[in-house]
Amino acid sequence: MAVVVAALLPVFLLIVLGFILKRTLIRPETQWHGLERLTYYVLLPVFLIQTLVKADLSTVPVGGVGGAMLLSVLAVSLVCLALRSLLARAAVDGPAFTSIFQGATRWQTYVALAVSGSLFGNLGLALASVAMIAIVPLANVLCVTVLAQYASPEKRSAGSIAVTVVSNPLIWACVIGLMLNVSHIPLPRLWHEVADALGRSSLAIGLLVTGAGLQLEGLFRPSLAASVAVLLKLLLMPAIAVALALQFGVTGSNLAVVTICSAVPTASSAYVLARQMGGDAPLLAQIITLQTILAALTMPIAIALAAMC
Predict the structure, then answer these.
(1) Is 224 within 8 Å of 214 (Cβ atoms)?
(2) For residue 104, is pLDDT > 80?
(3) What is the 3-state secondary structure (H, E, C) of the chain?
(4) CATH code, 194
(5) In the chain, what percentage of residues exceed pLDDT 90?
(6) Mean pLDDT of 205-210
(7) Which one in 149, 156, 201, 278 has a CA-CA gap of 20 to 30 Å to 143?
(8) pTM
(9) Mean pLDDT of all residues in 61-79
(10) What are phi and psi of 188, to 5 degrees?
(11) Cα separation of 265 and 246, whole Å?
């Protein structure tokens, strides 16, 4: 437990620093939007490509880790959809439901990679990247589809949804990195030097941006919708993912990384998607804040319990 807390502490300190900087030194919203776009479209994609290029996937249980993550996202998505009618009776409207769905099914990439790398080095990064290959495309397809169905005043066409999913830079980064790894195409030294430099900055800046986006309003009196999203993401998702991983024979550090990736809070980029597609963005900001703060407590417990399996 002490080792896990020590690995998590720098991650959450960077998030806290981002929260403080947003309210003191760097207040203009436009500057943080610029950093968010830089991280999302350049730094993180390059980091993912480089991590997959350097990863020895022959030592990684791709099927077990990827399968556990993919099926856990599907399972929680089905639970959310099954709860739709009950939530509607509790006055949770369509846009609010989409925020619950995003809060329950998406994951905070920066936290997952930072903690996995801190605990297990390059192996942890490779395992987290495998989890990302399984999660990112599926989660984006599901969330965009749910937003188009329940939030948008006008239903989006299948082609429009497909364009939104295909244009996701993280999906392309995973595809390119995996292709380069499998094909063993040699890359010049210059690429590695530039990619390593960009990659080192991506997680730190991403965590700062995550902290800057936290909202404390309503933190101590969370709504029913926010509470449901927290329970589904921080409790149900890890339980399902770990159970599936054990069924697939995943153990040790591999199981720990599955736990990390399933127990992280939801992605801060979900807020941007909610704003773009008519979701309940203020509710999602509350969900992200609650999950990020509570994950500092739930993640060490989840990882420690998985280590006992």
Answers:
(1) no
(2) yes
(3) CHHHHHHHHHHHHHHHHHHHHHHCCCCCHHHHHHHHHHHHHHHHHHHHHHHHHHCCHHHCCHHHHHHHHHHHHHHHHHHHHHCHHHHHHCCCCHHHHHHHHHHHHCCCHHHHHHHHHHHHHHHHHHHHHHHHHHHHHHHHHHHHHHHHHHCCCCCCCHHHHHHHHHCCHHHHHHHHHHHHHHHCCCCCHHHHHHHHHHHHHHHHHHHHHHHHCCCCCCCCCCCHHHHHHHHHHHHHHHHHHHHHHHHCCCCHHHHHHHHHHHHCCCCCHHHHHHHHHCCCHHHHHHHHHHHHHHHHHHHHHHHHHHHCC
(4) 1.20.1530.20
(5) 38
(6) 84
(7) 201
(8) 0.82
(9) 94
(10) -65, 155
(11) 22
Q: What's phi and psi for 153, nearest 5 deg? A: -65, -30
Cβ atoms within 10 Å, residue 29: 10
109 CB contacts (<8 Å, ≥6 apart)? 44, 132, 136, 170, 206, 267
CA distance 209 to 29: 11
Place of tokens 């905070």: 108
Domain that holds residue 94: 2-307
Of residues 308, 309, 279, the one with CA closest to residue 1 = 308
Q: What token pair was written down for 179?
A: 């292709």
pLDDT tens digits, 16-46: 899 999 999 999 989 998 998 898 889 888 9
CA distance 36 to 147: 22
Mention every residue, 6+ apart, whose C-beta is less than 8 A from residue 220. none
- Number of folded domains that form the chain: 1
